[in-house]
Design goal:
single chain, globular, five-stranded parallel β-sheet, 2 domains, alpha/beta, Rossmann fold, about 50% helix
């Protein structure tokens, strides 16, 4: 069943992705107008209206802000840290495989923060979880890229547990819990993007991680108009699509019983 859900989610995301969906509507509208159907003009207007909305308003920031503000780093930090979990999603395994050197994407702070925390807490166990998150992939996993990168940055390979089978956040939580088997009272930091933290915390709690502490990174929002309008259009579109996907993911995980609420709370 997990394999089917994974395949369905990847297949449906392509047409449902907001940018793709708007373009599909626009081309469909143009085709109808070409055939003399006046109703096609409304589809063209809807398509153009979506892109105009992204240019004129910070709707991308408005969608991300509730997610990124949901969980903050604890202040002060925990006095004792038993383990650090870094979620995949920050590496490009296909490009790494093609070029032979570790390739990172816009969520690279997950990887750098993992190294910072590992050096700040030398007594803590370090876990990276990530397998093949893309639908079309080669033989290199995210864990392979993480191992190559962190080893080059001076993290001893024997200190890290690399979980290389997880394809999504639910499997990150379940497989790492099964692999690590955390003991009651142990304090674990969870490192992932701030906008991804609500879904991650909900899933990890449901999987049995009770003493899990959020450690968000990779913020993309601010609370000033300068931050709202600073990003160029392609980045705004990317932020909107990421936020849309997170809200869809939160709803889907709740309906599937993988989280206890649509928007998990601190």
């Amino acid at each position: 069943m997990n394999d089917i859900l994974f395949a369905v989610s990847k297949i449906l995301w392509f047409p449902a992705r907001p940018g793709h969906f708007a373009l599909i509507l626009g081309f469909l509208g143009l085709a109808l107008v070409w055939r003399g159907r006046r109703g096609g003009r409304w589809l063209v207007l809807l398509s153009l209206g979506f892109f105009a909305m992204l240019v004129a308003t910070p709707v991308n920031q408005w969608m991300l802000l509730p997610l990124e503000d949901r969980f903050a780093r604890p202040a002060p930090p925990p006095p004792r840290v038993d383990g650090i979990i870094v979620l995949g999603g920050a590496v490009e395994q296909n490009i790494t495989e093609a070029r032979g050197i570790p390739s990172l994407n816009g969520a690279a702070e997950r990887m750098t923060e993992g190294v910072i925390l590992a050096r700040r807490h030398p007594e803590a166990r370090l876990v990276f979880t990530g397998g093949q998150g893309s639908f079309v992939h080669g033989g290199t996993t995210e864990a392979d890229v993480a191992r190559q990168l962190w080893t080059a940055m001076g993290i001893p390979p024997e200190r890290v547990v690399y979980e290389d089978a997880a394809r999504n956040t639910h499997e990150n939580a379940v497989l790492t819990h099964r692999l690590i088997q955390p003991k009651p009272g142990e304090v674990w930091l969870l490192v992932t993007s701030a906008s991804h933290m609500p879904r991650s915390m909900g899933v990890f709690r449901a999987a049995g991680w009770r003493e899990i502490v959020p450690w968000p990174v990779n913020y993309r929002t601010g609370h000033s108009w300068q931050a709202w309008y600073d990003a160029p259009f392609p980045e705004r579109l990317g932020q909107f699509e990421w936020a849309f996907r997170e809200w869809i993911g939160l709803t889907a995980y709740y309906l599937m019983g993988r989280t206890e609420s649509v928007l998990p709370a601190p």
